[in-house]
Amino acid sequence: MADKNADSPAPSSSNTGSQKPTQSNTGGLRGVRTTSLFRAVNFELFVKPNKAVMAFGLVAITGCVAYIGYMHAIKENKADELVYEQYRPDGSTEWTKTKRSKWD
Fold first, then answer.
1. Residue pLDDT, tens place only, 26-71
2. pTM above 0.70, yes or no
3. Is the pLDDT higher at 36 or at 98?
4. Best exposed site among 15, 39, 62, 91 by fewest CB in 10 Å?
């Protein structure tokens, strides 16, 4: 029982750490031979995922979508409350809302 390592095979000279990794033991497309142009254009396929950058990107995209939604809601609310100053022929003024069709 004290001789556990005697049953395991001795490491061969071909299994040393000096070999380059092959496509089978690397993740994604990092092991595939590609052109420099393809790697430059599609760099996100060849780098390791970075959780901090992904979190920042998610927050940024969510903020942009929320801001666009906010701006859309503000514009719709202002369109409903459009008020203008109407001048009468006698020189008086009156604040009136825009006339809306009942189809709106």
1. 566 667 788 889 888 888 787 888 899 999 999 999 999 999 999 9
2. no
3. 36
4. 91
25: CB partners within 8 A, 6+ apart:
31
Res 9: pLDDT: 54
104: nearest Cα among 76, 83, 84, 75: 76
Written as six digits, the tokens of 59 are 């927050």
Tokens 């409903």 appear where? 80
Vertex 87, ends 84 and 92: CA angle to 5°? 120
Q: Which residues pair with 5 in a beta bridge?
A: none
Q: How far apart are CA 88 and CA 92, in angstroms?
A: 5
Please count the other Cβ atoms lying within 10 Å of the Cβ belonging to residue 13: 5
Structure tokens at 15: 């299994």
pLDDT score, position 61: 98
**Residue (of 75, 74, 76, 96) closest to 86 by Cα position:** 96
